[in-house]
Amino acid sequence: MPQGRRKQIRDAQRAYRSRQKDLLISLQERNGQLEDAIGHLSQIMHSFHEVRSNAALPLPKLPEAVDILEKEIIQQLRRAERSSIGYHPKRPEENTNFNDKMQRLLVQPSSDLVKAACPPPSISRQSDSPFWTSFLQTSHPLIPKARQTPCESSFGNPLAVTDSHDKPISYATTPFTQRLFKACAESGHRYLTNEAVSDREMWHEFGLVLQDTPRAEVASYFKRVLAAVPCNPIQDFRFPFISLGGAGSHFSVKRMSIITSGLQNLLPFQTTNGIKEVPSDEEWFDIHDVEGYLTSRNILLQSSQSSQTPMLLDIAKTNTKYSIFGHPLPLDQQDDVAPAIFIDEDFIISELSRLCICIGCAAAFRRRDVEALISHSAQPLPVANLQTIT
Fold first, then answer.
1. Do the strands 241-244 and 299-302 form a parallel or antiparallel pair, or are they unpaired?
2. What is the pTM of this model?
3. Mind listing the pLDDT tens digit for each residue in 99-124?
4. Eight-class DSSP state of 163
5. How far is the C-alpha of 80 from the C-alpha of 89, rounded, in Å?
6. Which PANTHER family does this entry report, sorted A to Z (predicted)?
7. How high does pLDDT run on average in the chain?
């Protein structure tokens, strides 16, 4: 083989080895870049999980916490882009940046949170970014996604129901639940139509619906609900029953002659607005759960209405345990029932209407708030005084 040919082959081999070496170095740098980004994502997800699980992050602060997490994830994904120029490994101080933000959020007073500079997530119907959809529908065990009932998935794209086709849903079926539902609807409508209250300030009460529906449409829905006779939810697929923390499923409900329990209590919504289950660290009540709780504790309602007095008189003269409807409890439920106590119905409805949040087409109350309110306002039944009246 000529000497010149050998030299060409050696030069080609050196060039090939040089290109392979450069490619290997480039791949190693790229691998390190991706490992660095993935490692940081793992750290912030672990930190978020600890804050969410161990620090008992309250529900009002959850939107802002997820907003901080979103920005951090987007930042790390941009760092991992192949087109990134001038990439440098993360500095040690960057590891604590996310933790510091979460800790500041935890120690921030709830009253100040409403006025924080960082606004809540966008409440427009169509988000410019698919982050919320992708994040909340993830299969990662950190974030439990909202579960849809079988009938809900068949609705497709929800369509608004016009005023001319308003149809009420038979939800509030007893005098107490009807009064409580209407009081909550009136309170919510006043809040929504108060121009002095910003969207950020009402995020705690209406965040579950404002993240999908504009405030004006929510206010319009409340107006239609209040126009229903009797006052009840209106059929509108944009406002499902959001069973937050098991709301609506804690106690048995009697409709007509049928007694249901669990999610069967929400049958009126399965073929109308739909049901969406949202997990929560705390238990939440709907209006029927509140009524069921009062019944289970043998708590009687005293109203300014004169029709309530005979019921109280009859209960005071007997040893039979009664529910808040004035009906005797079954014998198997009377053994462990505490002595009868009463609570002012007007007072508890007024107070609960200030404690409620919107769960789509209904209202919900944190269980511990209900228990605290009742324990501070319930009184022993004045048997002697009632017998004197007779």
1. unpaired
2. 0.54
3. 777 777 766 654 443 443 344 444 34
4. G
5. 11
6. B-ZIP TRANSCRIPTION FACTOR (EUROFUNG), B-ZIP TRANSCRIPTION FACTOR (EUROFUNG)-RELATED
7. 75
